[in-house]
Automatic annotation (TrEMBL):
InterPro entries: LysR-type_TF_proteobact-type (IPR058163), LysR_HTH_N (IPR000847), LysR_subst-bd (IPR005119), WH-like_DNA-bd_sf (IPR036388), WH_DNA-bd_sf (IPR036390). Residues 1-59 form the HTH lysR-type domain. One of its GO terms (molecular function) is DNA-binding transcription factor activity. Keywords: DNA-binding, Transcription, Transcription regulation. The keyword Acyltransferase does not apply. Gene3D superfamilies: Periplasmic binding protein-like II (3.40.190.10), Winged helix-like DNA-binding domain superfamily/Winged helix DNA-binding domain (1.10.10.10). It comes from the Bacteria. Belongs to the LysR transcriptional regulatory family. This is LysR family transcriptional regulator. It comes from Pseudoduganella aquatica. GO terms for biological process: DNA-templated transcription. The keyword DNA-binding applies.
Length: 299
């Protein structure tokens, strides 16, 4: 048995949902593909697929085997590509994970230009403010902000985003415009961004001429997703501190008004992060470079 061929045949059946379709895409006779999968099942002594006259379904053991072997096949393809003429033209599948506001306001609007430049790359993007497990979730890279503490990961800083503190005109009319961050602790409410790790509200940070302040304030509402966090501020639920790129359209329209502009905290650094033991394919390399160019435009 050619085990590698059998694994590829099994994977293609899982993806196509049919032996016939899988055989067509691999350019081999249906009988040959079927024998390869049967030989693999005999070698493993487990049932990978359930076949009926109408459909093919994956067994629980087959699903686990598919997930584990897909990682191996992908790494093998990456290594082959590094020694191939295809290296000059990036191609293949990228799995990327990014926070909600970064995905919706920075990456996705610019993605058509990236795909026009690299038409042979296909991207699946997970969008969530929750941190993913790069190894367990089989993700090529994630875009994360803040300090990197996991030594098993490699991070390339691609840029940073500045902060803005703001509120709606109606809120400021009713509560007044603060001149100092300490004023937010009395007579004001704050829309808190909730940490996806701890569930606690993140304090508002301020800095001026070496002086740094953290203000928690009285919480009106807490939200653990960045786009919804801005929506809460737009609803007039309290003072909002968020990335300037996310608030910029609303500031331009007058829906939000910047406050305490002379008390800006340091910009927030963003990184493209990937496992230290994973080969960096050409497609991942060009994606990282492209992301760095996008963040440069945010400054």
């Amino acid at each position: 048995m050619d085990q590698l061929q059998a694994i590829r045949a099994f994977a293609r059946v899982v993806e196509a949902g049919s032996f016939t379709k899988a055989a067509d895409t691999l350019g081999m006779p249906n009988a040959t593909l079927t024998k390869s999968v049967q030989a693999l099942e005999a070698h493993l002594r487990i049932k990978l697929l359930q076949r009926t006259t109408r459909r093919v379904s994956v067994t629980p053991e087959g699903a686990q085997y598919y997930e584990k072997t897909q990682r191996l096949l992908k790494e093998l393809d990456d290594v082959d590509a590094s020694f191939s003429a295809a290296q000059s033209r990036p191609r293949g599948h990228l799995r990327v994970d990014a926070g909600s506001s970064i995905a919706s306001q920075v990456l996705l609007p610019a993605l058509p230009a990236f795909l026009a430049r690299y038409p042979d790359i296909r991207i699946d993007m997970g969008v969530s403010d929750k941190h993913v497990n790069l190894i367990g979730d089989n993700v090529d890279c994630v875009i994360r902000g803040g300090e990197l503490t996991d030594l098993s990961l490699i991070g390339r800083q691609v840029g940073s985003a500045s902060w803005v503190t703001c509120a709606t005109p109606a809120y400021l009319r009713d509560h007044g415009t603060p001149k100092h961050p300490s004023e937010l602790e009395q007579g004001h409410t704050v829309t808190h961004y909730l940490s996806t790790r701890t569930g606690r509200g993140m304090p508002l940070n301020f800095a001026k001429q070496g002086e740094k302040l953290e203000i928690l304030g009285e919480r009106s509402v807490g939200v653990n997703e960045s786009n919804a966090h801005v929506a809460a501020g737009l609803a007039g639920l309290g003072v909002l501190q968020t990335f300037r790129y996310g608030a910029a359209p609303h500031i331009a329209s007058g829906a939000l008004v910047p406050i305490l502009e002379d008390w800006r905290p340091a910009p927030y650094s963003f990184y493209v992060v990937y496992p230290s033991n994973r080969y960096v394919s050409n497609r991942l390399r060009v994606f990282i470079d492209w992301t760095a160019d996008l963040f440069a435009a945010l400054e």
